[in-house]
Amino acid sequence: MSAGGGRGGSAVPDEEWDRFLRDSVAGTADAPRELSAEERGRTAKSPEQRPVGGAPVWRASAPARPRRRGRGWYVAGMAAAVAVLAASLTPGLLTDWFGAGDIRPLAVESGRPDQAPPPETPRRATLAEPFLGSPAARWADGAAGVGMPRPKATGWMNSDQVGRALDRTRDFLTWSNLDRQVLEGKRPARAISLINPHQQDVQAFLGSAFRKPDRETDPVLLFSRFDPATTRLVGETVKTRGRLTFEEGPKGSVRVTGDVTYVYPVVRAEGGSEDVVRTIVRREVVVSWDDPTKVVTEPGTFSLVSYKADMTNGGCGPVTGFLTPDFDRSSADAETNGSTVDPYDRSTSMAERPEPDGGCGTATRS
């Protein structure tokens, strides 16, 4: 599986970047303070960045008639409920409907597309070709599928520093969603090391998510991980499509948004399983690279502003702390409703995704 590295064009080495940030902190006359959740909410620039606890959203499930359940999303403070959007699918049926189609690689995404990918020729995924029947067959591998904007001076940073912040943000997405050990259930230590340790609400979430996950503190809201006792990844490749964008945020910060869809082919963990299904996770993560003269932070770390996730075939049952794909093609234990979503459609923002009455809906394809 490709996990990609840095942007390659940054002119600022690690040691110079860290020394700059340390000097910035050391030279501060008035000690900065960490923004509270309430203050971050007040200074957010757009409605989707303000606290909106309790919004009904999607949660993934593989059964033909998925259970539904409501969730909220985290925005700049754990006082708001943690977010998850998702959809469910019938993997046996959907992998027959859609197939390889056009296999020419797509260019990296540079802006929001104006429509969903077209239907594919019906073909079933195999161990040798786990992305058959999926638009992801044309997507890039690993971090190569994350489009990177050209850096320019923004807020308190010059262009080189912005480039470095973009690199580090992509590192976070890579270490959260593509690192093989994390995908196999390990704690995402490298990703967590990039989060501002002074952001107390986020640190509280991280402290309980891996120890005792529940609906509000589930690590899969932010990190992609499977239970190796039940699920095995197929091959070394995760397909991705998405991009980073950036803008000036409150107090001269540089706010970076990552909107990326990840496609994971998996089989049952027991030996000899060839029944390939896919778990699809679209994540929108917003981080703030804060001016250390105005906000308490540590060199090389960001503050987490918001995270939202839209998961297909990631589980709709009890919270386990793992993505839990359903391999039972005959499951049907509850009624569906009219709420559907195409997990490959990136033509709308996460805020514009349809919201079901409960927590689980139906995906139109896998």
Please give a structural write-up:
The structure is a single chain. This protein has one domain. The longest helix has 19 residues, at 159-177. It is an alpha/beta fold and 366 residues long. Strands 1, 2, 3, 4, 5, 6, 7, 8 and 9 form a nine-stranded mixed beta sheet that branches. The protein has a two-stranded parallel ribbon with strand order 10-11. It contains seven helices and eleven strands.
Shape: globular
Low-confidence stretches: 1-12, 24-101, 330-337
The helix/strand order is: HHEEHEEHHHHEEEEEEE
**Number of distinct beta strands:** 11
Q: What percentage of residues falls in helices of 4 or more residues?
A: 10-25%
**What is the makeup of the main sheet?**
9 strands, mixed
Instruction: Average the pLDDT over all residues and give the rounded result.
Output: 77
Distance between the termini: 20 Å
- Write down the Rg: 20 Å
Question: Please, how many helices?
Answer: 7
Strand fraction = 15-25%
Task: Compile the SSE list and pairings.
Blueprint: H1 14-26, H2 37-43, E1 74-75, E2 85-87, H3 91-97, E3 140-141, E4 146-147, H4 159-177, H5 180-183, H6 189-192, H7 200-209, E5 231-233, E6 239-248, E7 254-268, E8 277-289, E9 303-312, E10 340-341, E11 362-363
Parallel strand pairs: 2-9, 4-6, 10-11
Antiparallel strand pairs: 1-9, 3-6, 5-7, 6-7, 7-8, 8-9
Key features?
single chain; about 375 residues; alpha/beta; nine-stranded mixed β-sheet; two-stranded parallel sheet; 7 helices; about 15% helix; about 15% strand; globular; disordered N terminus
